[in-house]
């Protein structure tokens, strides 16, 4: 859906490290910030940026988006420290590396600024950091579910193309898949880096050196696009079993032509929208009762309309909210691809 006749517009921020600012009018003065670990080059986060923008509009709050331009976690840590110093009304952040972010996130908690963690990290880490909740996908379970599908297809060996090995959660995806097959995940995991050319060359070398490899698992568009290019050059695209996490236009095309078996969808839109909505409700209703907050969120007509339009389905736990996993296949790609890269 194209956003037109909006009262909100998108402003670029020129300063290095400040990323993208999303500005909107707000009645009660609430101002939140979402800090991700993603470099500017990672287009997958565009869906979350769009979600943040829409949630800001729907709940009449201002939300800033911050990220380290090159994906440097030390830069991300500084952004979290800055958020604590600026006394935002709420902080949303991914736990890209618990050890690196524990101290700066502790500064947020020490100031009693409500914090919601998203995307990366575990529920246990989120709770240890004092976050209100975590909104994301259980990474090990998602990997295992994908591995079970591969096992049912007769797959016994694979390589996990990990383009973000600095994020511990990425290994949980590989580990879940490997354990479903009954293989050693460390031996089957390729630290490919984030440069597409490097990913392509490393995967090609791995497959030449391990010719009995039956399947390739990519962890997102960055590794998926480069991996598909490597398979195409090797003449095995569409022949080798291939699956990936997350979606993009290219991945959707692969699902349709059969070169991608499925995409494991963590519904990133929910990771941007829900935290903003939850914090807005908490602030506006002056409550910390999560049951009441979730009840009001689920009853919100704008939120319900977004879910129906984009085909999204969160899972509500007593404290945390799961945004996935879901599996996008040929059977449901028609509905999903309409919004791939934008709201899916």
Structural class assignment: alpha/beta
Multimerization status: single chain
Order of helices and strands: EEEHEHEHEHEHEHEHEHEHEHHHEEEH
How big is the Rg? 20 Å
Q: What does the average pLDDT come to?
A: 90
Biggest sheet statistics: 9 strands, mixed
- Number of separate strands: 15
Distance between the termini: 11 Å
Shape: globular
Q: Share of helix among residues?
A: 40-55%
Strand order of the largest sheet: 1-2-4-3-5-6-7-14-13
Q: Tally the helices: what do you get?
A: 13
Strand content: 15-25%
Explain what this protein looks like in three dimensions.
Helix content is 44%, strand content 17%. The chain is an alpha/beta fold and 344 residues long. The strands form two sheets. The protein has a nine-stranded mixed sheet with strand order 1-2-4-3-5-6-7-14-13, with helices on both faces. The termini are close together.
Q: Which keywords apply here?
A:
15 strands; six-stranded mixed sheet; 344 residues; alpha/beta
Quick structural gist:
This protein has 344 residues and is of the alpha/beta class. It contains 13 helices and 15 strands.
